[in-house]
Structures are given as structure tokens and as C-alpha cells.
Write a structure and sequence with these properties.
The structure holds two protein chains of two kinds. Chain A is α/β, with parallel strands linked by helices. Helix content of chain A is 36%, strand content 15%. In chain A, helix 1 crosses helix 5. The model of chain A has no long low-confidence stretch (mean pLDDT 93). By secondary structure, chain B is of the alpha+beta class. In chain B, the strands form two sheets. Chain B has a five-stranded antiparallel beta sheet, sandwiched between helices. A four-stranded antiparallel beta sheet of chain B has the order 6-7-8-9, with no helix packed on it. The N and C termini of chain B lie far apart (43 Å).
């Protein structure tokens, strides 16, 4: 029997809280630095990644373990036509856990089916990215309780997997969700229905300035240039969704700004100096949260 | 008595079979999809009769499928429930109904329906069959979490 982390929807509130509590203990240096001595983590990234991959490897190293990887996709057997199922069966023989990012949705679920060691999903296409969601929740929890907050989700809410996973997790915490997105990039209707059925209140707004005074968390996601027919319409749209110090003048004092990164133009660099800017802290939190995940699945 | 006569008339729309399966009370217009679900094609050997939109006391109109020399398994008949939950299955031996049963919606559908999500791993060359959990909302792909809510017949593999 192995335990996998594939989708945030597989978690209930108690399990999320327990994992975040463990991450907090780790953050306070209250953990065994040799906990995963002699253990090996295989990182299989079939799509580009900077933060997720490095923070998983850093997390493994901090716990005394080692990481192995295939390097680039071009260098691995899948380039020769090997199925993911076979790759996973082979890698299961080399490592004590596998972290996978893959362009196809459901790839991590398939990997879990064929692996004899635990699998952690580090993003599958437009699907799930549970470790990102857990570190998002952890970062919010550092500043405020999750229950009952007002959270604004801004940007590409249709294709952004971090937005979907986060919204699903927040539905466990009685959060009021405010959505602000360009036409055509709204939250998928099926997800809105699902969240509504869980009792989540979702309010759509045209512009962030309509709601900036009321929200406790502003979660910004990147709007991809390729979603628009030309650069002019991209810049025209994105300028309406940009977070600036001027906009934040009317925000609550304790409000925080989050972004899964990388950012392009969504957040004015001048915002970085404000105490509300928590996105680099959020990125750093990837290490203790992923350490808690690795300890949960490997030990 | 009158009902039996009616049934007899319906039965006569297509020839009685000696041995095999009669699928009755299929929702009108769904008989061809039932045949598709059962995997019966022009290249299979079964002798098949189909009646569509015949009068029915219970349903107003219904479809019937008769399949000679083949008794359907429970797994096969339960798949029919996806498109026609009121269908009944009659196993015929020597012109007599030996067994009569309804269809039950299965909890899991495997290898029957293609996931409509083109980005789903189940639509690649991986050695897996599509798998859907049947929920009140529709068919839930266990791989990509897509929920197929309508037009299930057009996604049958």
C-alpha cells in the first residue's frame, strides 16, 4: 500500500490542516533533519519548472534525502516512444517516491496506478497542482485564519490550474470568493456549480478596484499572451488587471497579495516593497510545505 | 389479459427468437445506441432484430432489441442503464422467457466511453482503459476529473 498526493480534492479539511501544522513545525526548525536519510526522490518533469522542482529537491535535501532526475525530456526514454506507465514502473525501482509534472491531465493518477512507490503530482496539464495549493493556504494562514475571509482571484481563471485547485480547497473554509477575469477566461461553469454546491459564495466583478476595499487576500494569476489574438489586445486587457501601489491605497491594511509566479506584468514591481506583498514569501514556503508532504508519503 | 395481447402484437413486429436475449422497454430512439454499447457491429455474428418506436402501455413508445443465441452478462446489461435505465432484459430459452431482470446503473464504467477531454491521459497510447465513476451528475473521469454530463452515446468507444 502506498499513499499518493494527486489532487487537492482527495483531501478533507482535517488532512489539510494536519499537513499545514506539520509544515509550520518544520518552518520553526522543529523536525528531524535526518528523517529521510538514505531515501531517494525521483523528479520526473516533462514540462518546464523552476520553483516546484527546485523546492522539492531542496525539501528532500533538508530532510537528509537525495533527488535523482532524468534531466530534459529529450534525454529520456519517453522521447523514444516509451509509455508513461513503463517509465513509472522502471523509476519505481530506483526511488522511494516520485514527483511528476506532465502535460496531460490525469497523468499523475495514471502514474499512481503503475507505481510501487508514492507519487506526488507537481502539475498535470490544466488539471491539478496540489502542492501549490497547500503552500498557498499555508501562506494565507501565516497572516490570518482561513475561515470566513474574502479572497479575490484575478487573471486567467479558466486555464489556470492553481486557481481551480485553490478555489476547491477554499470551499472547505467558508471563504467568500470574488472573481475578476477577462471575458473568455472566467472560472469554468462546471467548477462554479461544484463550488456553489459546497456552499461557497462566488461573486464576479468587472474590475479589482470594485472590490479591493473588501478583500483580505488578492490572489493574482498570470494571463498568458497566447490566449489573445495579438499583443495590442493582450496589453489592453492586462492593464486592467494590474496590481499597483495606487490601487492598494484603498485596500485593507492587513490584506495580502499572492501570486504563484512567474509574474510578467500583473504586479507592478513597486508593490514588492509593500508589506502586503507576500508572493516571494509564498514561493519560499514551498520548501517547508513540500517537506511536510514528503515526510507524509515516504515515512 | 388485454395487456398480454398487446405484448403479443409487439412481439410479432419482429420474429420470436428460440434462444437469446430480448432487451425490452428501451427508451424510444435508443435501440441503435444499445446495440453500439453491446459492441455489436456488422462484423459480429449475432442475428439481431430491432424495433423502434413501438407502442407501449408503460412508456407510450419504446424500442426493442432481440439478439439470437447470445445471453448477455450482468456487466453488459448494466451498461445499457447509462442510456436507458428502464430497460428490461429477458433471457429466452426454447422460445420461453427463463429469466427477466432490470438494469442497474453500474458504479464504474471501464473501457466503454472515451473521455471528451482531448488533454486527458486516457486519450493517449498508455496501456489503460478509460474509467469513469458514475455519479448523479454524470460520468466522472477518474484520470482528468472531467464530468461527462450529456450525450453519452456519442462518446461510446
Amino acid at each position: 500500500m502506498t499513499r499518493h498526493i494527486i489532487s487537492i480534492k482527495d483531501f478533507d479539511r482535517r488532512q489539510i490542516d494536519r499537513l499545514l501544522d506539520n509544515a509550520k513545525r518544520i518552518d520553526a526548525q522543529k523536525y528531524d533533519k535526518t528523517a529521510l536519510n538514505g531515501k531517494i526522490l525521483a523528479t520526473l518533469f516533462f514540462e518546464p519548472s523552476t520553483r516546484t522542482r527546485m523546492s522539492f529537491e531542496a525539501a528532500m535535501a533538508r530532510l537528509g534525502g537525495t533527488s535523482i532526475s532524468v534531466g530534459s525530456v529529450e534525454a529520456c526514454s519517453m522521447a523514444k516512444g516509451e509509455t508513461l506507465a513503463d517509465t513509472i514502473r522502471v523509476v519505481s525501482g530506483y526511488a522511494d517516491a516520485i514527483v511528476i509534472r506532465h502535460p496531460k491531465e490525469g497523468a499523475a493518477r495514471l502514474a499512481a496506478q503503475f507505481a510501487s512507490v508514492p507519487v506526488i503530482n507537481a502539475g498535470d496539464g490544466a488539471g491539478q497542482h496540489p502542492s501549490q495549493t497547500l503552500l498557498d493556504l499555508y501562506t494565507i494562514r501565516q497572516s490570518m485564519k482561513l475561515d470566513g475571509i474574502n479572497l479575490a482571484l484575478i487573471g486567467d481563471l479558466r486555464y489556470g490550474r492553481t486557481a481551480h485547485s485553490l478555489a476547491s480547497a477554499l470551499s472547505l473554509y467558508h471563504v467568500k470568493l470574488h472573481t475578476i477575469s477577462p471575458t473568455g477566461l472566467e472560472l469554468p461553469p462546471a467548477l462554479i456549480t461544484e463550488l456553489g454546491e459546497k456552499g461557497m459564495e462566488i461573486i464576479d466583478h468587472d474590475e479589482i478596484k470594485d472590490i479591493v476595499k473588501e478583500v483580505d487576500v488578492i490572489y493574482v494569476t498570470r494571463i498568458q499572451r497566447e490566449r489573445f489574438p495579438d499583443s495590442a489586445s493582450y496589453f489592453n486587457v492586462t492593464s486592467n488587471y494590474r496590481i499597483t501601489p495606487e490601487l492598494l491605497e484603498s485596500a485593507k491594511k492587513h490584506a495580502i497579495i499572492l501570486h504563484p509566479l512567474p509574474r510578467v506584468d500583473e504586479i507592478d514591481p513597486r508593490v514588492d516593497r509593500l508589506p502586503n506583498a507576500k508572493y516571494f514569501e509564498q514561493s519560499k514556503n514551498g520548501v517547508p510545505v513540500r517537506m511536510a508532504m514528503l515526510m507524509q508519503v515516504i515515512q | 389479459m388485454k395487456k398480454e395481447e398487446n405484448n403479443e402484437k409487439e412481439e410479432l413486429l419482429v420474429r420470436r427468437i428460440q434462444n437469446g436475449t430480448v432487451i425490452d422497454h428501451i427508451a424510444p430512439g435508443e435501440a441503435l445506441n444499445v446495440v453500439k454499447i453491446l459492441g455489436i457491429t456488422g462484423s459480429t455474428t449475432e442475428s439481431l432484430s430491432i424495433a423502434t418506436n413501438v407502442p407501449s402501455d408503460q412508456m407510450g413508445k419504446k424500442d426493442i432489441v432481440k439478439l439470437s443465441n447470445r445471453e448477455l452478462s450482468k456487466e453488459e446489461v448494466d451498461r445499457i442503464a447509462l442510456i436507458s435505465p428502464r430497460a428490461t432484459i429477458n433471457i429466452i430459452r426454447n422460445y420461453k422467457v427463463c429469466e427477466k431482470k432490470g438494469v442497474e446503473v453500474p458504479e464504474l464504467i471501464e473501457g466503454l466511453v472515451r473521455c471528451p477531454n482531448p488533454g486527458c491521459i486516457s486519450n493517449t497510447n498508455e496501456p489503460i482503459r478509460s474509467r469513469f465513476v458514475v455519479t448523479p451528475k454524470g460520468l466522472h473521469c477518474i484520470y482528468c476529473e472531467w464530468v461527462l454530463t450529456r450525450d453519452i452515446p456519442s462518446h461510446i468507444i
